[in-house]
Design goal:
The protein has four helices and no strands. The longest helix is centred in the first third of the chain and has 15 residues. The chain has one domain. Helix 1 runs antiparallel to helix 2 and helix 2 packs across helix 3. Helices cover 74% and strands 0% of the residues. 8% of the residues are buried. The protein has 66 residues and is mostly helical.
């Protein structure tokens, strides 16, 4: 069980540091896409946006809505 926990910790850290993609994490852990999303949602903020990114998105949506 410790080996699985160590592998999961490695996958989380690699995803956080952008060394691995979500697809690669799932492949490493033997998870489906949905299982991988669930796993990462429990361990990582999947929507880690900077304020400037959110403001740019809001501005784009506002311009498109006109």
């Amino acid at each position: 069980m410790l080996a699985v926990e160590a592998l999961e910790a490695l996958a989380v850290e690699a995803y956080r540091s952008r060394t691995m993609t979500q697809f690669e994490v799932g492949k490493l852990l033997g998870l489906s896409r949905i299982q991988t999303e669930d796993f990462l949602a429990r361990h990582v903020d999947l929507y880690d946006y900077a304020t400037a990114e959110l403001e740019a998105e809001a501005d784009l949506l506002h311009r498109l809505h006109r």
